[in-house]
Batch of 4 targets.
Target 1
Amino acid sequence: MLKFLADVNIEKQIVEFLRKSGFDILWIPDYNPLMSDEELLDLVANEDRILITNDKDFGYFIFLQKKPVNGLILFRIKGQSIEKKLANLEELLNYYKDKISKYFIVITEKKIRFTPLR
């Protein structure tokens, strides 16, 4: 079963959707809202979770600093439409569940892009 960690910038509706769908998810505002990005990545790696974020800076840590992660989902949706995010996340979980772990995933308004990790 996939386990997730939602960054502080992820909307509560996304966290609630994943919880209602039966996923194990930690939300940083409930856990430790003052956690640094590096501490967050350590937690993700230690607990074998997939990070969900709106923060594109995590690409730097993963690809340039080679920080280990089990997977990452990055939302890049103009206007941060929660309806669009939920629809695209649902599509990802329904059709690409086997490509979530070990991938850096970018979700835009029109597509889902997968980059293998490691």
Target 2
Amino acid sequence: MKEFGCKNYQNRVGVLIAQLGTPDAPTPKAVRPYLRQFLSDPRVIEVNRILWQFILNLVVLPTRPKRSARLYSRIWTKEGSPLLVITKKQTEKLGALINQGRRDPIEVVFGMRYGTPSIESAIDALIAKGCSRILLFPMYPHYAGATTGSTYDAAFKHLLKKRWVPTLKVAQPYYTHPKYIQALSKIIDEEYQKLSWRPDKLILSYHGIPYKYVQKGDPYCCMCVETTEAFLKVTSLPKEEVVHTYQSRFGRDPWLQPYTDKTVEAEASAGVTKIAVAAPGFTADCLETLDELGNEARESFMHNGGKEFHIIPCLNDHEAWISGMKEIVEEELGNWMQDSNGCEGGCRTCPMASIKI
């Protein structure tokens, strides 16, 4: 005899922290499936799918994993991938902070768009914990189809497979949210105070996207510019010392400019000897910040005459950002923040509770 009841209904609230992803190890074997998943996303590579699959499988995947694995090995830690380690810390600290004094804990988990743990597995984990209401919180302050849009794709497609689809809220991009800007400014200010020298220039380096994506309607570059403008309003740094750039271009198509690598070279060639570089678009340090900026940009700057170079950490698990995340998440949750009176299972009033087969 099997008894039916509403034991799956608990009406709990969950928060899904969504990050881009990382391979499981700094090896070609681990990097290859990660790159395959990433570069197969039509939001990331917007070209003819048949042609691109030919290029991806016959040109990119046979060679790129080895080079990427070498780069990942330069930033890998004993704990593992910096992005994964930091995202875990952000999730744990946010969960602890947001649940202080709550009777019904809010479940906070994280998932990766590419790699593990996946966004899909994170959604399943929240549902298994009785979450009928979920806030999707992308860790990208600025909307871009290749990041935020792709994250929506993964979450929505997975939810379409569910019998009972949880109520889903999506956090809006927070590129000018006061708490985000304050955390960014505080971290930069703290890093400046640690230095025994003063940077001549601060380069704010955002991840780039192909210019044609903007022409198609992607609002990303406008949001990045607004972040820089918001930062300039709260920082004590003179406007002329702050330079706005874009990094990580790939392929032959023109990307958003000015390019970070070219700017670093030009500043050094022009006589600037001391610079600091921050990456406002990244909420956790990763390959693009630790290696592309921390190693490659540093080497380029020094090679062209620079003397002092400092890479400023991302927001990471700094208390100012964890506090900022908490406030942004609470704003997005709204009345979901009220303690739940959801059923814990076996409700006497449920017409299914007494049915047996």
Target 3
Amino acid sequence: MKTRSLIPPTNGSPEANQSRAKRRRCTALAVFGVLLLALAACKSPEARLYDVSAGDTLKLGDALSRFKETRIVLVGEHHTDERHHANQLAVIRALHEAGVEVAVVMEMFRAETQPQLDRWVGGEMSEADFEKVYWDNWNYPWKLYRGILRYAREQGIPVVGLNVARGITRQVAREGFASLTAAQRGQLPPITCAVDRTYMEFIKRAYGAHSHGQMNFTNFCEAQLVWDTAMATYAAAYLRDHPRRVMVIAAGTGHVWKGGIPRQLEQYTKLPHLVILPEIEGSVTPGSISRKDADFIFLAP
């Protein structure tokens, strides 16, 4: 019984054999070309920013010179939006790769947890143990912030906690700033609900989403300002102790807005700062805000 060979016959004229070989080479090159195109398509495009003052759109790399000239870059987020955290990491990475000494400063951690943050960056704590520290400080999914925190650890970039003890803001929200003891107030100045119109509108929206009938508006507003003021105080103190660092502050959009942390920062330091807000349909878009609100908008893909 005859069996078929799985190898195609190579007999025939030299011209025919050369033609078959050429077709095989062309097929291989075509497949390779398709793979290259697929890889190119999978590569994430460089983030784009809208310059609020100039009214221009530019790539992140083109804005880097502006970032390097400042000492504080505030990058806002909606806590549950992965794109916003990718934007924050893009800024941190771009500055670090440009040779800038960066510090990652985060709303998500209380200042009192700084020893654990230092151990994490120093490689002295496992991810499983550090995740417990994270959950003790914040209540949004770990995976949203893991990329930033892993990159800081891998590159030896300091991570700094900005927040006050949760009991303080909770007490102010329920009983007002005047209810705090001198020990609780620490370095905080007297705080009243006095903000500009734009920031007041944000606080009212936040109050509607969080109050649940358990606190009056004035107390809620004071709690918001305690948060902003404390973060500004800790940030200014860190910069005084680390004069070579450029600080990238990751915090909620409401806090990053120029009426929030930046307004309080001006009470403690004259160092230059920039505010980048994420594009948010209906509230933060090119043309909808001014330089009084932010310097750049991270455009949605």
Target 4
Amino acid sequence: MSITVVLSAEVPDFNKWKVLFDEDEDKRVKGGIYATPHRDLDDPNRLCIISQAPSKEAFMALFRDPELQKRRLSVGVVDPDIKFLEKI
């Protein structure tokens, strides 16, 4: 059974972040993670990503990847809020 992951964060430049997000799609797919980005209508530098992942562990393994951490920091994602949800 898969889980839903909701990640939200503020970034200095949404467009710069979006380029990086798109470039990392292959890594997400290889990890079984399918993510859809959203942008806050009232705060254009606030993002929300809604993902499906095989498990919390699978998501966190990708999220903790040192290369991806470095890339996130390079576009200003510092302390994202992450929620893990299961369908009931």
